Amino acid sequence: KVLCPNQGSILTVECTHLFDRGLVAMALGEPYQPYLEQAQQLNPDYYKKSEKRIAEIEKTLQELGDKGGH
User: Which are the contacts of 49, defined by CB distance < 8 A and separation ≥ 6?
Assistant: First the structure.
């Protein structure tokens, strides 16, 4: 369990684990949306702050895919 801040209080939840697991699944080409959706439900503020990481990883994976296909 990880402590995640949520609207001024601290809740013991697995939001960061779910979020990070989703990122790993994304990098491996596995279904990742369920992990990210659960993380978003547990802590919308953390998810919103972390959306930039998702976009950066998706962009990098796309670029790597484009280079690998040529």
Answer: none
Measured CA to CA, the distance from residue 36 to residue 70 in angstroms comes to: 31
Read off the amino acid at residue 61: L
Question: Does pTM top 0.90 for this prediction?
Answer: no
* Percent of the chain surpassing pLDDT 90: 10
Tell me if residue 29 falls in helix, strand or coil: coil
10 Å CB burial of residue 25 (0-12, 13-18, 19+) is middle
Q: Where are the alpha helices (DSSP H) in 1-70?
A: 15-27, 33-42, 44-68
Q: Which amino acid is at 31?
A: P
Query: Could you give the CA distance from residue 70 to residue 67 in angstroms, rounded to a whole number?
Result: 6
